[in-house]
Amino acid sequence: MTRFVVLLIAAYVVYSLVRNSLKGKPPENNVQHQKAKKPDTVVAHVKEIAYVFYTATKDDDTCDICMELDGKHMLPHHKLLQQIKPPHAGCKSHKGCRCTLVYVTRDEDGSREIESLLKKHGGMCDRKIIERNRIG
Length: 136
Description:
Helix content is about 45%, strand content about 10%.
């Protein structure tokens, strides 16, 4: 009887190993393995972004909200940016929101200058303020 129980347990273990290998899972055991934490790539990318530029399509089908936001420069963590990420729900165009965000990294020419200007203006400026401060 003991041999039968041992044989039954061995058969179940072999069955479990084969079943898990076909599924691509490691064999289960009582030891819990800690998974290595992957670095948070989203946070790393946000650290590299100097600012975000909002651009609208600007044709006859562009709504007033999108036209107002066109040309705005914002810091990546600005609260307005979190609310209006295109395609945003407030767009009144019958074609839907066709706006885009352009992410500018810190290694691009002049990006640090614009980033510091945005910090001075509360995290958001329009194109006119950026151009006025870059020329003058």
